[in-house]
Amino acid sequence: MTEETPGFEEKPDVPSGATPEGAESKAAPQEGAAPAGDAAAQIAGLTAQLDQVRKALEERTADLQRLQAEFQNYRRRVERDRITVKEIAIANLLTELLPVIDDIGRAREHGELVGGFKSVAESLETVAAKMGLQAFGKEGEPFDPTIHEALMHSYAPDVTETTCVAILQPGYRIGERTIRPARVAVAEPQPGAQSVKAEEATEAAGDDKESGGPDEG
Predict the structure, then answer these.
(1) End-to-end CA distance of the chain
(2) Which of 55, 74, 113, 196 is deepest in the core (most CB within 10 A)?
(3) Biased-composition ranges for Low complexity (predicted)?
């Protein structure tokens, strides 16, 4: 029989190249950890993706802002065109009514605007005024070829510039738009009157100077 040494237990033989079980259990968690270089590469990739997303967002924001600006311009253009079309339609309508309004004015001058005709005429004039129709043209105002049409011409010694001396037919406008010029008779200064007045003014100034001088003697 073989004698056993007390206090010692036999252990299985372990090959020289094998790893103990305890060493394997400690080394196992380290096998799943990513190296430091791989983590840096992942961060760089995510940063690049983030930059691309930001760039795409900036481009889409710029596109949206451009579309909003174009839409606002379109709305303003449509509104402006709508107002222009409305003004043209009103101007065309009132232009067709001008002969009737002229007849009403002549009837008023001759005292024929009475009875039911007067009421209808005044109603028509009120509606035309609400639509923006304004009459212009007064005697004594300077002649302006942009708003006046001269049908008669004469000379007058008491005017210093071409002046409207009679309103043959009033002009009409809608806002700043003239739909018919005022038809007028004009008078210009008498030929030579300006030179005569200038000579008289010079002589008067000389007389005043002589009379205002000191007495001799």
Answers:
(1) 184
(2) 113
(3) 27-40
Question: What is the structure's pLDDT at 38?
Answer: 83
Query: Rounded CA gap, 98 and 107, in Å?
Result: 14
CA nearest 141: which of 185, 76, 177?
Answer: 185
Q: For the segment 139-169, what is each residue's pLDDT rounded down to a tens digit? A: 999 999 999 999 999 999 889 999 999 999 9
Separation CA 130–CA 88 (nearest Å): 16
Rounded CA gap, 213 and 209, in Å? Answer: 6
| Whole-structure pTM value | 0.57
- Nearest 5°: the CA angle 164, 166, 171 is 80
- Do 125 and 104 form a contact (C-beta atoms < 8 A)? yes
- Rounded Cα gap, residues 191 and 197, in angstroms: 11
Proportion of the chain above pLDDT 70, given as a percent:
71
